[in-house]
Known about the structure:
The chain is an all-beta fold.
Amino acid sequence: MRSLWLRCLLVAVALFSAPALSIVNIEDMRMDETKPGWMLSSTLSLSGKRGNLEEDKLSLNGGTQWISDDLKVRNLLLFTVANDRAEGETYSEEYFAHLRHTRQVVNGIAWELFGQHQSEPLNQDYERQLIGSNARVRIETALVDGYGGAGLMYEERSVVPPLAEQIERNDWRLNFYLNSSYPLSDNAELAVNFYVQPAIEDFSDVRSVVNAGITSRLNRVFSLTLDVSYSNESEPLVGQAHDEWTYAMGLNFRF
């Protein structure tokens, strides 16, 4: 049986209470692309407390991937379902799904087609759907060791502010990204990601995100990670903030 990768997230805390992240860093969520066949990665988390406050938190996230024998075709599905309750009432709910088809055109260059759905019913009934396509290029230089991409996507977003009607925005956007890793030592690595998505009809309507993460390998099985992200949107939907900071720490293991 092929190895299964399981990622166990110990702590994931937002620095500020903020809107749904409009750019999801798919590069950091990709699975091993060097082995043909099926692969599964999944994490089920359950926590809670009883006493002065009754609270329950449940989340399921992960993905599945299929790669052809010649490694030239890849299909990837990523998903997240999360529900947080306190005193019997749900106060946070999140759903996410991302489907991506990748075809290797030549060595180092791939064409991708993708679709995505995000929703947070209790965050002003926020919803986001998109479809798009992009080129993905392997980059190996003195300054960059990773992947770059450029493409086009169509996006639909909506929110329902308090005491107001639904607000919708549909846009065609360009999508540019750069992902690179830098070794810090024999057992530690720094990964940096940039995303920029300007609207085609108005280039002043730009959203962007910067992500930096450090992974330290403790031994053959365990590794420790720390990630920090900052995102900015020049023209967010009504009731949504311009900026968002997040960080996460986790312990990863494989067998």
